[in-house]
Structure formats: structure tokens, C-alpha cells
Amino acid sequence: MIPDQFLQELKYRSDIEQIIGSYVNLRRRGRTLSGLCPFHSEKSPSFTVYPENQSFYCFGCGAGGDVISFIRRIENLDYMESIRFLAQRAGMQVPEEAGDDRSARLRKRILELNRDAARYFHRNLMSEAGRPGRAYLIGRGLTKATITHFGIGYASEGWNGLTDAMKKLGYTKEELLAAHLANEGQRGGYYDIFRNRAIFPIIDLRGNVIAFGGRNLGEKGPKYLNSSDTPVFKKSRNLFALNFAKGSDRKELILCEGYMDVVSMHQAGFTNAVATLGTALTEEQSRLIAQYTGEVVLSYDSDAPGQAATRRATGLLEAAGVKIRVLSIPDAKDPDEFIKKFGAERFAQLIEGSSSATDFAINKLRQENDVTTAEGKVSFLKQFAALMAGLPSPIEREVYLSKVCRELEVDKAAMAGQIAREQKRRDYRDRKKEERDLIAPPIREDSGKDREDELLLRQHPREMKAAERLLRYLLEHRQEDGAIRLPRPGRSAAGPAAGGVLPKRERPDDVPGAIAAGAFRAGAGYQRLGRESLPTGGGPAGQMAAAGRPAGDR
Prior knowledge:
By secondary structure, this protein is α+β, with helices and mostly antiparallel strands. Helix content is about 50%, strand content about 10%. It contains 24 helices and 18 strands.
């Protein structure tokens, strides 16, 4: 166990405002700070930081806790790793006895295994056995310096090359399976997952090798094979080459589809290129990008799947508050091919001339609708109106509206009316969604929320809003020891407002459900519905209803 004195000193040196402010753009609102939540997509801030008691809470997704909880979530670390992360930042030494944690030891072993595996793959590439891998990489135009810079390696065709080498270094079968470097055979044995592939190590922002991507050099198997999620790797939360791109002099990031695109672009001088890890862009990756830049150039393939991926990425990045430009690549299927054909200077010109996400979307609508016919023009204008209704900037909307109406000879007032109707529909849908999220936000697997409470909160939105206001008040009065101390008014009243201390909870993000339900029962909703209409089961909801008292007054 970690001494409590060490934890208190660590939290004292790790000011939550500074720590969270390095990940989230915070704005002060009186005694608190607010910003867009880094753990879910939202357009209006629901993420609140409370400097006085060094805690945070999101009213949108329910994430909350102290500075250690925040680092665990944002960096995808376990408890011990988050403490080491903060201790290193604060210049403190973690007590030796604190390191005896099974999951932390496994993560440490997997990171060591990945590092040794990366070295094995790279040595193998440079050996006689790596001739097929070298032929492929040199054929793709990569230099030895680039191969070394990215640590690219080669997995031979054999079934046990890596596993035998790692076994000699002392790694066990269980560790190889946990790192997703080996699969288990039907007879209890195990064999290499990566065979006859060029290997691209995936490195996190702290320099750890956390996973691998393999490009097939033969005829059998998928073209690309990527590590599955492991205790040290979540593919939806990481980006290839971000460890290099974050130090680039260029202000924007270039988002590509594949490893080879990124490697070729870095070799050509575009060191701000990154790629997803075998999946479409995710919300987590979008928020990660937003932590490092406010602008992204989308450089996906020009085929149909690439264009579909561009449209999806546009929506996710806009939701994360990132400005988007879309790269059109003529006479080539991807950035790698274009650079080989026309050179880095021409590619730089493409980036400079890249269009905004709105221009890209309008051009795609034109391609999908024949505006030379009446039917095609009507279809285009309806879709264009829906697109304009989603633009947050009235100035941007006015510019595009004037341009399209002039080009298609359409009455501007009629189009403005159509856009206004689309906005009303969109606002109605957004408002209903916000109400649903407020009434019943997504339940996390570890929330443990009582089902009766959940049903109650879904059925009575107005009372829930009142409960939310009370919840904000209570969180502002949460003390360092975890208890909630409330000022005692002149007259006594039932419930938390009567003064006293709400019991300490080990998980601050479990507080909202109980308090909100208790506040509902103590307030107008309880009086209006009558005690007989409330559930009286054995859980927290039923117990509180039967007692006629809120959670904090028991």
C-alpha cells in the first residue's frame, strides 16, 4: 500500500487546475472552471473543475474524481501507473513497497516484452533472414535512416521465431499471450501471430512500445494485421507516429489512413503526419488530436472507402472542436504514391490548397446530384440546406448560401427559409437528446447505479434538473477528506440542506445518482407525486422512499 502521507503530498504538488488545463481548455466561472469534457463528445461545456477541493466532475457523462482519477482516464493508465506518472511530473520518488501490484507488474512486463520484441524484429530485418522485408521496404522508397528512425522490422515466415527468442529472454507463455504476440495452439502450445510481415512498432507519447502493426508480404492472410487490445494498448485511444508528430514545427496534424503513408510523409519532411491503427477514427482519437492541435488536414485515400472515412472523421473532429481541411489527391490513390510521382514540393502545394470541410461536403453533394436537371437540383438544395443548418457560424453560412444561390440561380430568401426549417428540426432533435442525456446519461459498467433510481430519473426530467442544481452545490462543498460539509442555516429543514456531513465515498463519481435521487424525493417531485407512488424496493431508492428522507439525511 502507498502511504497516505505520500498520496497527500503528491496531490498537493499536482494542482488539478494545472494538470487538467494541460489537456482541456478551461474557462473560469467564479470559483470553478469549465470546459468541453475530454471523455465524451459535446458541444456545450459540462465538464467542471473545483480547485478548492481539487476535484472534477462531468455532468454529461458522469466522470469525476481527483487528479489521480483524471490521469487514469485521460492517459489510459492503471492506478499505480497514474501515481508514477504524476510523481515523475512532480519530481517525487514512489515508495518501493508500493510497486507490488499484480496488474502493474503485468503491464510492466508487457512493455518490456514489446521493447525486446521490437528489437528482435528490427535485428531480423537487418539480417540475412530479413531480405524479403528489406526488398519490400526499399521497393517502397524507404531509406535505411527512415527504417531505423521508425524501428521498422521483419517477422519471418516461421511459426516460432519470436516466441523462441523471447522464451530465451525469460518471458513466459502467459506474457506472450497477454501481449498479443502469440496465439495458443489446439494442443496447448503457442506460435507467433506475426509471420512474413513488415513490422511497424506503435510507440506511445512516453516512448513505450505498446503494440505492433504488420504489413503482409505474402499471398495468405489479411493485408494488415494489428495488435489486439492489451493491458497496455487500446487501439481506439492511440495514433501511429504521434510520438514524433507532437514535436513537429508545423501547427497542424496530417491524418492519414496507413502506416506507409505516414512513414513516406515523414521521410519527405512532413513530420506532422499520423494515422489511425487499423480502424476508422474514433471519438477518443479525435479528443486526443484536439489536445495537440486545433487544425487537421485529412489525407485519406481517394477511393470510395477513403471518402467515406473522410466524412466520418469530419464529424468527429468538428465535435472535438478541431478545424478541418480536406486534401484532394489528383492522379494518385494515396499520399505515398503522389509523393513518389510528383515529389514533396508538389505535395506541399496540395496541402496549402486543401479545402475546408464544408467545401469538401458541398463538392461531394454536387458529384452525387446532377444539378443540370430539375430533380437533381432540388435534391442537391435539400441536402445543402441540411448541411448549412449544421454550420455554427452565421457568417460562414451566409457566404456559402450566397455563393450557391448565385451559381444555381435560386432565390436566396427561399433557401434561407428552408435552412431555417432545417435548423428548427435540428434544434428540436438536439434539445430532446440533451434532455434524454440529462435524465438518463449512459450508464458506465462500473457505476453500480440502482435500477429503481435510474427509472425514477428517466420519468421525471424537471425534478432531475432541480437535483442537478443541488448536486452542483454539494460538489462545491466537498472537502479534501471526501465528506460534503454544508452550511447550517438558521432554521432546520429536512434533507442535506439542514446541515451536517454527507458520508465519504471512495468513488466520487458514484455520488451523483444517490444525491440526485435523494434530492428528488426531498423536493417538489416527492411532494407532488406522493410517497405512495415511489418504489419501495430493497435498494437505495426503495430504502430512501420508505424512510421519506434523502440520502444525506440517513
